[in-house]
UniProtKB/TrEMBL annotation:
Residues 120-409 form the Peptidase M14 domain. SMART domains: Zn_pept (SM00631). Its cofactor is Zn(2+). GO terms for cellular component: extracellular space. The keyword Hydrolase applies. It comes from the Eukaryota. This is Zinc carboxypeptidase A 1. Residues 1-19 form the signal peptide. InterPro entries: CARBOXYPEPT_ZN_1, M14A-like_propep, M14A_act_pep, Peptidase_M14. Keywords: Carboxypeptidase, Disulfide bond, Hydrolase, Metal-binding, Metalloprotease, Protease, Signal, Zinc. Belongs to the peptidase M14 family. GO terms for molecular function: metallocarboxypeptidase activity; zinc ion binding.
Length: 415
C-alpha cells in the first residue's frame, strides 16, 4: 500500500508540473539545406522579425540548418522555401511529442538514487550539490568560490581544481549554460569536473595547470527551461514587455553591435545596458579577478559542432588567429579520433555569423585572455539536445579535446 501511495503522489506531482509547461503542440522543426549565399541572405531577411526559432546556425557550409516553426507560420515558411529553392525535410513533426518523451525519461531518471548522473540532465540544485560533494570528498584538490548570485538568487559556484593553490599556475576557466536550453553544456562542464577530480590517472594534468569551472552561468533560465518552457534561451530578469536577456549579447565589448537585438522579446535581446544581468557581471568579475592567471577560456554551448574563436563582432581576425586556428584543429582532431565526430574550426563571424556582445570577445578584448574558444557541442536527432541516454556518447570525446588544451597550456605557460 505504501508503494502504491508513493506512486500516486508522484503521479500527482508530475501531473502538476506538466500542467505548468508551455505546450509545443503542432510546432515543427524544419531541416533546411541552404546551398548558396542568395538563399542565405533571403532567409536572414525573411526572419528579420524573428518569427522562426533557429536551433542551429544559419549557414551554407554543407551542414543543414534546423529551425522550429509555430503552427501558424509553417505554411508561410513552406511557400518561402519553395520560392527560393531551399531544400528541406521535416526533422520533427510535432515538437511536443519530443519534449514529452524527454520529460518522461528525465522523470524516470529522477527516481534513481540521488547524486550526479550522466544519463540524465541534472537540475541546478543537483549540480551545486555535486560541487559541494567534490569539496567534501577531495579537499586536497577541490575548493569552492562564489561568483555571486543570479537574478532570482541562485548561487553561482565555481569549483577550483588545483593540487597547490599557492603555486600561481596558469588557469583554464570553463563556463557553460549561459543559454538556458542548451542542457548538454552544463553536463559537459560537470563531466570535466568528474574527470579531473574523481579519476586518479588524470591528476597528472594538474601538475602545472589549474582548472576553474562554473557549470551553469544562467541557472534561472536553466531551471525555467526544465519546469516551464523547454526552449527558453535567456535569463529571467523582469522586463517591461518580455522577460530575459541573452547573456551572450550582454557583455560590454562592442555591446549592441551586429547580431544583437534591441527588442526585449527577441531571443537575442542584448539587455538595457552592458552587464545589466547579475550573471554576466559575475562572469566578468571572476575573470577580471584572475585575469593574470587565466590563459585559456572555454565557454560551452550547443549545438552545431564548432570550435570558435574571436571575433564575433567583426570578420577581422585577432592578432594570434593562426595560433588559435592551429590549436583548435588539434583539439578537433582529438575529438574526431574517438568516434568520428567532426568539428569546424574558425572565428565566430567567419564560420557562423556576426554576434556582438559575447563573453568570448569580451574575455579576449577586455580581460586580455590570450586563448578563447566557444565550443558548440552536438545536438540531438529528435530534439534540441541528445536524448538523456545518449549524453555519454558525447561527453568523453569532448574531454579528449580538453586534454589537448591542458597539454598546450602546460607546455606554453607551465613552470
Amino acid at each position: 500500500k505504501s508503494i502504491m501511495r508513493y506512486l500516486l503522489i508522484l503521479m500527482g506531482v508530475v501531473a502538476a508540473i506538466w500542467a505548468e509547461q508551455f505546450s509545443y503542440e503542432g510546432y515543427r522543426v524544419f531541416r533546411l539545406h541552404i546551398s548558396n549565399e542568395n538563399q542565405l541572405r533571403a532567409l536572414a531577411s525573411f526572419n528579420k522579425d524573428e518569427i522562426f526559432d533557429f536551433w542551429s546556425s544559419l549557414r551554407f557550409d554543407g551542414k543543414p540548418t534546423d529551425v522550429m516553426v509555430k503552427p501558424e507560420t509553417q505554411q508561410i515558411l513552406g511557400w518561402f522555401l519553395t520560392a527560393t529553392g531551399i531544400r528541406y525535410e521535416i526533422l520533427i513533426d510535432n515538437v511536443e511529442d519530443a519534449v514529452q518523451k524527454e520529460r518522461i525519461i528525465q522523470q524516470r531518471a529522477s527516481l534513481m538514487p540521488e547524486g550526479i548522473s550522466f544519463t540524465k540532465y541534472n537540475r541546478h540544485d543537483e549540480i551545486n550539490a555535486y560541487l559541494n560533494q567534490m569539496v567534501r570528498e577531495h579537499p586536497d584538490i577541490a575548493s569552492l568560490e562564489s561568483a555571486g548570485k543570479s537574478y532570482e538568487g541562485r548561487d553561482l559556484k565555481v569549483l577550483k581544481i588545483s593540487t597547490d593553490p599557492s603555486a600561481n599556475k596558469p588557469v583554464i576557466f570553463v563556463d557553460a549554460g549561459i543559454h538556458a536550453r542548451e542542457w548538454l553544456a552544463p553536463a559537459q562542464a560537470c563531466y570535466i569536473i568528474n574527470q579531473l577530480v574523481e579519476v586518479a590517472e588524470n591528476r597528472k594534468l594538474l601538475d602545472k595547470v589549474d582548472w576553474y569551472v562554473l557549470p551553469v552561468v544562467n541557472p534561472d533560465g536553466y531551471e525555467y527551461s526544465h519546469t516551464h518552457e523547454r526552449f527558453w534561451r535567456k535569463s529571467r530578469s523582469v522586463g517591461r514587455i518580455c522577460n530575459g536577456t541573452d547573456g551572450n549579447r550582454n557583455f560590454g565589448f562592442h555591446w549592441g553591435g551586429a547580431g544583437a537585438s534591441k527588442e526585449e522579446c527577441s531571443g537575442n535581446y542584448m539587455g538595457p545596458s552592458p552587464f545589466s544581468e547579475p550573471e554576466t557581471q559575475a562572469v566578468r568579475d571572476f575573470i577580471l579577478k584572475y585575469k593574470n592567471n587565466i590563459k585559456l577560456y572555454l565557454t560551452f554551448h550547443s549545438y552545431g559542432q564548432f570550435l570558435l574563436y574571436p571575433w564575433g563582432f567583426t570578420a577581422e581576425l585577432p592578432e594570434n588567429s593562426e595560433e588559435l586556428q592551429q590549436l583548435g584543429e588539434q583539439v578537433a582532431l582529438a575529438i574526431r579520433q574517438v568516434q568520428g565526430t567532426t568539428y569546424i574550426v574558425g572565428s565566430s563571424t567567419n564560420v557562423l555569423y556576426l554576434a556582438a556582445g559575447g563573453s568570448d570577445d569580451w574575455a579576449k578584448g577586455v580581460a586580455g585572455v590570450e586563448l578563447v574558444y566557444t565550443i558548440e557541442l552536438p545536438g540531438g536527432s529528435e530534439g534540441f539536445d541528445p536524448p538523456p541516454e545518449d549524453i555519454m556518447k558525447y561527453l568523453p570525446e569532448t574531454w579528449e579535446g580538453c586534454k589537448v588544451y591542458n597539454q598546450y597550456i602546460e607546455e606554453k605557460f607551465g613552470k
